[in-house]
Design brief:
The protein is mostly beta strands. It is 0% helix and 25% strand. Strand 2 and strand 3 form a beta hairpin. The protein is elongated. The two termini are 19 Å apart.
């Protein structure tokens, strides 16, 4: 993995006939900003933690994927 891209910079489709960029994800905004609880969740695949999901007090969610080195099946040492 070489970069982290914020969700606000991701576009699903930018082919708007008016020429203006399409929003990354259509969302409805509440009149009052919602308060979010800060939290961290471990995302697992089997016994191994695959990623961390961080929720900011502003509501932004960031996922950090973990990249483990390959291990030798017999010795358990890095390959």
């Amino acid at each position: 993995m070489s970069a982290i891209i914020k969700s606000s910079n991701v576009r699903l489709d930018d082919s708007d006939p008016s020429g203006s960029p399409a929003p990354a994800v259509p969302t409805a905004r509440p009149a009052q900003p919602a308060a979010h609880e800060k939290r961290v969740e471990l995302l697992r695949i089997g016994e191994r933690v695959h990623a961390l999901e961080l929720t900011c007090s502003c509501g932004e969610i960031t996922v950090i994927e973990l990249d483990y080195p390959e291990r030798d099946a017999h010795t358990g040492e890095p390959a």
